[in-house]
Structures are given as C-alpha cells and as structure tokens.
Write a structure and sequence with these properties.
CATH architecture of the largest domain: 3-Layer(aba) Sandwich
Number of strands: 20
Shape: globular
Radius of gyration: 24 Å
Number of helices: 9
Strand content: 25-35%
Order of helices and strands: EEEHEEEHHHEHEHEEHHEEEEEEEEHEE
Largest sheet: 6 strands, mixed
CATH topology of the largest domain: Rossmann fold
Number of domains: 2
Helix content: 25-40%
C-alpha cells in the first residue's frame, strides 16, 4: 500500500515553531522511500505521524486509500523498527518475534510457523531460544525487523535502524534489508542520516530542511537535478558564491557563460561535484585553475582531497587512492583543477 502525506503540520507546543509544516509527499506501494535531512528537520516526526504515535494538527495521512486521522496505532497495520532495537530483554528471540501475534491472539500453530519462517528470513535459524543479550548488535536488529514483520504489516517504518551499528554491519544489514523488502514487497519508509544509504537502496527520497520538504524524487533527481544550492551542498557538492560579470557567471576562481536572462551583478552559486573536477599536476588548456592541497583524508580505498583556490574558496574532491598515488599528491603542494561542468543557480538562496 502507498503512504500519502497531505499538507501535514505538527506543533509540540501551541506557540512553538512547527516540527513539520505543510509537508506533502507520497511513498510508492511496495518500494523503499527514504526521508533524509539534517538533525531537527522533522524526519522522525513524520514517521511518528504515519505510525499514529503523534496526531497532526493540520493535514491528513493516508495508508492506501484510508484516512488514518482517527485510526488507532494497532489498527493501522504498521511495523516499527527503531535504532535502539527496543527488544524485551527477559524474552527469548522466539518470544520477541511472536509478541505481536500473541497479543492479537493468533493460533499457536500459526504463530510457531510464522516465527520459524521469520527466523530463517533474518538468518537466525537455530537461535530462537537465545536472549537478546546473547546476540550481537546486528543480530538484535534482525530480531527487531522480524518482530515488525511478524504481523504482516501494510507499511514498515524504520527510524535510523542502523545508526547504532558499526560501518561493516550497517552495510551488510542494509543490503540484507533491500533483499528482504523486495522479497516481501512491503511498503517501507526509512528515516536515515546516511545519504549514501538512502541513495543506494531507495526508489524515492524525501529531503527535509527545517520541517519542510525541500525536494522529493528519485535518487537521480536529487543528485543530478537539485532544486537549490543548499540541496546540492547537503548531498556533498562544493558550492561557490559569485555574481554575473560581463555575461559570465563568475564564482570564485571559475566562470561559465551566463544564461540569456541573467542580469549584470546578479548573485550566482556554482555547484561543483567531485566528478565535475579533474586534478592535474600541470596546467592544460581550458578552464584550469591552480590550487593548493590543504588536506588529504584517506578513507579505505578513497581519498578526500580538500583544495584551497586562489580567491580563498575551498572545494573537495573524492578520488580513488590509486589516482591520488599516481598524481603523487601531498599536503601543501600545488595542483591544477580542470572543471568539466558546473551547475549555476541565479539569485538569492540560503547559502
């Protein structure tokens, strides 16, 4: 079933700033929709509104064609998974998974069959009689997923489910989640601070700033066609400020031809992503600028190269370690930056 949020506003105090304001989006049935944004953007509030843990002050939330405004949490048919597992420590893995079915007074044979199937699905077959304290963090989170899936929910709601796990386990679990979700076809809303995670496993992404939807669309839409420089910066691009001069959009050390509607002196923002920039050790023809390597940060097989440009601005380039080694880059040395393309925004923006 799809989830449709229509013009929803939620305040936690009568005179306070809304936690979310006039939010609208639709999560496609049978797909993963990620909700991303900085801390305080309203991501978890939206999830709680869909779950029924909070009620909107304005607007409506639909699950399928049903307006859930007056529907209890238990009747919404949602499964919830949180960052902290929220398992019953005095219950076995098997009893934790069975809990939702037990309170719904399902037949014991049905419960046993469902639990065994889910134990296999979450790769914990044979561990049903253990207690949560006897499991690793990744295994405990799998139990939390199994418990949420046990009731055969219409919608699976995930609030930072991998946030407490180390990087390796997090990657393993998100790949596992993607496979399970496709197998079961359950509509999933995922709140995450991990942009890479959201862009990798989601069909649809909702990006929120300050309690509002800044942009919603496919991962490719947000990355390739950001609606503002603020969005581009959040997704990892470098943003340089400048203005229109003599028909050129000049931002820092770079300039490109301005659009026909650009006005002399108008403010511009140039969005530069890693793939738009090429580093060389010598100047070549084209839009090339000298820069100095301020910092090299090695992260596994890749290196984040922070560069200082002549006009005082900074950009970052993410490169394979092999390319950095081939260029023999070192902090404090000069390199040249070739810009293959840049997205230009005109007028006033937040950054």
């Amino acid at each position: 079933m799809s989830v449709r949020v229509e013009r929803v506003t939620k305040r936690y105090s009568a005179a306070g700033t809304p936690a979310v304001a006039n939010v609208s989006f639709e999560a496609k049935a049978g797909a993963i929709t990620s909700i991303i944004g900085p801390s305080g953007a309203g991501k978890s509030t939206i999830l709680r509104l869909v779950a029924g843990l909070e009620l909107p002050d304005e607007g409506r939330v639909f699950i399928g064609e049903q307006d859930t405004s007056n529907v209890t949490i238990q009747s919404r048919g949602v499964g919830l998974v949180f960052q902290n597992y929220a398992l019953f420590q005095n219950m076995t893995v098997r009893d934790n998974i069975a809990f939702g079915l037990t309170v719904r007074k399902r037949d014991k044979a049905e419960i046993d069959a469902r639990v065994e199937k889910l134990l296999s699905l979450v790769q914990l077959a044979g561990k049903g009689n253990r207690f949560p304290r006897e499991l690793s963090g990744g295994q405990r989170q799998r139990v939390a997923f199994a418990r949420a899936l046990a009731i055969d929910p219409k919608v699976l709601l995930l609030d930072e489910p991998f946030g407490a796990l180390d990087a390796r386990v997090r990657i393993e679990l998100r790949e596992w989640l993607e496979g399970v979700q496709k197998e079961m076809g359950v509509t999933t809303l995922l709140v995450t601070h991990d942009q890479e995670e959201a862009l990798e496993i989601s069909e649809h992404v909702v990006l929120m700033f300050d309690g509002r939807v800044a942009q919603a669309g496919s991962p490719g839409d947000l990355y390739d066609r950001p609606l503002s420089p603020e969005i581009a910066a959040f997704l990892g691009a470098s943003v340089l400020q400048g203005s229109v001069k003599n028909g050129q959009a000049q931002a820092g050390s770079f300039s490109v031809s301005a659009t026909g509607t650009a006005v002399e002196g108008e403010k511009v923002r140039a969005v530069l992503r890693s793939e738009d920039l090429k580093l060389t050790r010598s100047a070549t023809d084209g839009e090339v600028r000298a820069a100095f390597v301020r910092r090299l940060k090695v992260v596994g097989g890749r290196v984040k190269v922070s560069l200082d440009l002549p006009h005082g601005e900074s950009v970052s380039v993410d490169l394979p370690r092999s390319e950095v080694d081939a260029l023999a880059l070192a902090e404090g040395e000069q390199v040249f930056v070739d810009v293959s393309s840049a997205r230009i925004f005109y007028g006033e923006f937040d950054i």
